[in-house]
């Protein structure tokens, strides 16, 4: 997961409330269940002395939001500047997480969030397309009609050649698809979505592809779940989107595991693990990918600047810095990685790093 999506958090003011819970909306009493879940979250935050304004911001974000479709998880982070992160999670959270801390807690988003908060869904046929831009839990919808008509061949016979109705129909369809392609190119240039999901019957999807610019086509994932006007079940759409993001997540974990294992095996110095090694790499700005395992309740220390992070006071003193903060490692290390532009990966059983933390490095440290 790229660090740019967390840049607002890295530049915001704390302390922070970090909330993760199952917000599935797949039962008759789902609305009542959401109210009960919110009350439990509110009580937990109050016990942790979270400010009333932070609790109020979370209440509006949770209770006023449109309900999820089917099984879903939700992650929110709020601070002095209001709601800073509000995301759908591709997997429901089994055990709710509610923290009020000096730093935001990012690990559940890294593990369960979509790899990118911006993506596009376009439902296309030869008459045009319905396009929705999903960005930061907001949805912007538009319909594109290139003005090409007719799009259906007339039943009556006409003279072949210049007036051939089939030729006019094909050209009208191509014109409409070119208009869709042009709109998608603008969306890529303006918002840089990670994925463009294309929905529609096979021929429409097939005819759209040659009209796309390379920078658009390389982001396309086709979903075979229905056609534009003959209809499809919206309940099938989000799971299909989530499956693609999950596939990408697993691929990213696999790539990080391979890089870490190879660097460790070769002794190239391009990987490190454990609190000592990772803290040193973060201080040097050398981390390319932070690999997060089970850190548990481990803590680290830092001076006034988070990037002076160290595993203990002795290491920090050797660096000539007085420790002014004791922080949870699972909060401090991911945020320090974000501030140095590193990618974040939540590992699985493929890697079990020392102290639950490892890193692939940009360059070997002395």
UniProtKB/TrEMBL annotation:
Cited Gene3D superfamilies: 3.30.1330.30
Highest rank taxon of the organism: Bacteria
Stretches for region Disordered: 139-168
Name of the protein described by the UniProt record: Peptide chain release factor 1
Organism listed in the record: Mycolicibacterium doricum
């Amino acid at each position: 997961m790229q660090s740019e999506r967390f840049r607002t958090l890295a530049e915001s003011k704390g302390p922070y409330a970090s909330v993760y819970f199952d917000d599935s909306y797949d039962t008759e009493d789902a609305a009542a269940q959401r109210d009960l879940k919110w009350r439990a979250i509110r009580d937990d935050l109050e016990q942790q002395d979270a400010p009333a304004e932070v609790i109020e911001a979370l209440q509006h974000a949770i209770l006023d939001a449109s309900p999820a479709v089917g099984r879903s998880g939700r992650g929110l982070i709020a601070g002095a500047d209001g709601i800073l992160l509000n995301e759908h999670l591709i997997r429901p959270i089994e055990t709710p997480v509610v923290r009020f801390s000096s730093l935001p807690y990012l690990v559940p988003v890294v593990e369960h969030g979509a790899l990118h908060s911006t993506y596009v869904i376009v439902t296309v046929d030869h008459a045009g397309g319905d396009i929705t831009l999903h960005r930061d839990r907001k949805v912007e919808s538009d319909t594109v009609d290139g003005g090409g008509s007719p799009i259906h061949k007339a039943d009556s016979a006409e003279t072949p050649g210049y007036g051939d109705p089939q030729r006019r129909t094909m050209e009208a369809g191509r014109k409409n698809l070119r208009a869709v392609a042009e709109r998608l190119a603008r969306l890529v240039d303006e918002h840089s979505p990670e994925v463009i999901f294309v929905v529609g019957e096979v021929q429409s999807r097939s005819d759209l592809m040659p009209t796309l610019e390379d920078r658009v086509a390389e982001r396309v994932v086709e979903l075979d779940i229905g056609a534009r006007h003959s209809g499809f079940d919206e309940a099938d759409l989000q799971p299909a989107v989530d499956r693609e993001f999950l596939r990408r997540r697993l691929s990213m974990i696999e790539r990080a595991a391979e890089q870490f294992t190879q660097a460790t095996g070769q002794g190239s110095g391009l990987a490190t693990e454990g609190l000592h090694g990772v803290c040193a790499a973060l201080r040097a700005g050398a981390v390319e990918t932070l690999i997060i395992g089970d850190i548990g309740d481990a803590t680290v220390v830092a001076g006034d600047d988070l990037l002076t992070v160290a595993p203990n006071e002795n290491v920090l003193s050797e660096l000539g810095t007085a420790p002014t903060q004791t922080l949870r490692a699972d909060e401090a290390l991911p945020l320090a990685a974000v501030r140095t532009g590193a990618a974040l990966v939540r590992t699985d059983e493929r890697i079990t790093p020392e102290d639950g933390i490892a890193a692939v490095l940009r360059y070997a440290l002395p």
